UniProtKB/TrEMBL annotation:
GO BP, sorted A to Z: glycolytic process
PANTHER family named among the record's database cross-references: PHOSPHOGLYCERATE MUTASE
Pfam families found in the cross-reference section: His_Phos_1
SMART domains for this protein: PGAM
HAMAP family: PGAM_GpmA
The species this protein was found in: Crotalaria pallida (Smooth rattlebox)
Keyword tags: Glycolysis, Isomerase
Name recorded for this polypeptide: phosphoglycerate mutase (2,3-diphosphoglycerate-dependent)
Active-site residues, Swiss-Prot/TrEMBL: H145, E248
Chain residues that bind substrate: 144-151, 157-158, 194, 248-251, 259, 275-276, 319-320
Entry GO MF terms: phosphoglycerate mutase activity
Site keyed Transition state stabilizer: positions: H318
Homology family: Belongs to the phosphoglycerate mutase family. BPG-dependent PGAM subfamily.
Length: 390
């Protein structure tokens, strides 16, 4: 006799109609079973049904998971991981359902935050070969924040949270014009306001007019209070994920000091060594090597999986955290990276394809002459935007 088990509160919160809408027609095929520590699927009746019903059940099961995730019912990472494992077991035990397996891999790669992929880029269902080809390419945009108020005063800034200057605001807007025809599905910034301002201002110029929304995962209450309950609004939004790992390198006891006065005090050679060497930190600060350890690790763990799932990513960050990431992308040596200079407010574009990062340079401004080497996919995206907004 099967023991009756009461689901925990966080599984009882959502409305039953959510299940009925997506699972009503397949009640005879499979049913859910809740336990206190896991969400499992018992499918003992399933083998009695034809192969077609098994495929239908697996597909609807994945749709239900996607619905739960989009409604923020699966925000807890541990519950997501357990549920994802059950999906894979269910699919593999019932035969290969490629679409469901693909959906599971995308859920796994973006467990921290999901976003709706731009429908302008959605491939046609009539050509499955083209779908596979397109899903292997994603755009990566890197933008160093615009000039800050302390840049303007020639002060060491580091991890001090200083906003943009008037010139920095103009640079961020100009950067947005340069990337206005390049798809963006998710944005990563540092925890510092100058990088976040740059990302927000840049997106005001994008032709898709999607609204960037900062994701708050710092607590259960923050997640609950910042939920969006309109599917249409979600489709017109871009998640913005802020992380301290993308912060500028910490300049220690140099922060707030005037750069020229510091050079006069310690000598130009010493200050140049602090600023441009790879492994020598300023007093009580970080070296570029130390900054690279956290920035590159975050890129590998959090950003690269988004690109692998086909999402187009923008990173708005800082000179040293971006130099660290570019060192990883371009496979630069420690000697090559110290001579790398990044201008404020000038976006750089990479294409992630077949596991490789290909640098495409900086997109030209809307009024500039010259040829910019778009990929075929980006060219088609721009053509569709032209058709939509002509």
């Amino acid at each position: 006799m099967r023991r009756k088990i009461t689901p925990p509160l966080h599984y009882r919160r959502f409305h039953p109609s959510l299940f009925h809408r997506h699972l009503g027609f397949c009640n005879s095929v499979f049913f859910f079973f809740f336990s206190r520590n896991n969400l499992s699927l018992h499918s003992s009746k399933l083998p009695r049904f034809p192969r077609l019903y098994q495929i239908m059940a697996a597909e609807v099961f994945c749709q239900a998971i996607g619905t739960l995730q989009s409604h923020s019912f699966l925000n807890n990472f541990n519950h997501q991981q357990k549920l994802q494992n059950n999906i894979v077991k269910f699919v593999s035990s019932r035969g290969s359902n490629h679409s469901c397996q693909r959906n599971c891999s995308v859920i796994r790669s973006s467990a921290s935050q999901t976003s709706v992929v731009d429908p302008v880029l959605s491939p046609s269902r009539s050509n499955p070969g083209e779908t596979s080809k397109k899903s292997n390419e994603a755009a990566l945009i890197l933008i160093r924040h615009g000039e800050s108020l302390w840049n303007e005063k020639n002060l060491f800034t580091g991890c001090v949270d200083v906003p943009l200057s008037k010139r920095g605001i103009d640079e961020a807007i100009e950067a947005g014009k340069r990337i206005s025809s390049i798809p963006v599905d998710v944005i990563f910034t540092s925890a510092l306001i100058r990088a976040q301002m740059t990302a927000m201002l840049a997106m005001t110029q994008h032709r898709r007019k999607k609204v960037p929304i900062v994701i708050h995962n710092e607590s259960e209450q923050a997640r609950a209070w910042s939920q969006v309950f309109s599917e249409d609004t979600k489709k017109q939004s871009i998640p913005v994920i802020a992380s301290w790992q993308l912060n500028e390198r910490m300049y220690g006891e140099l922060q707030g000091l005037n750069k020229q006065e510091t050079a006069d005090r310690y000598g130009k050679e010493q200050v140049h060594e602090w600023r441009r060497s790879y492994d020598i930190p300023p007093p009580n600060g970080e070296s570029l090597e130390m900054c690279a350890e956290r920035a590159v690790a975050y890129f590998r763990d959090q950003i690269e999986p988004q690109l692998l799932s086909g999402k187009n990513v923008m990173i708005a960050a800082h000179g040293n955290s971006l130099r660290s990431i570019i060192m990883y992308l371009d496979k630069l040596t420690s000697q090559e990276v110290i001579s790398l200079e990044l201008s404020t407010g000038i976006p750089m574009l990479y294409i992630f394809k077949e596991g490789r990062f290909i640098r495409r340079g900086s997109p030209i401004g809307p009024s500039e002459a010259g040829v910019y080497a778009y990929t075929r996919r980006l060219a088609l995206y721009r053509e569709k935007l032209d058709e939509m907004f002509q």
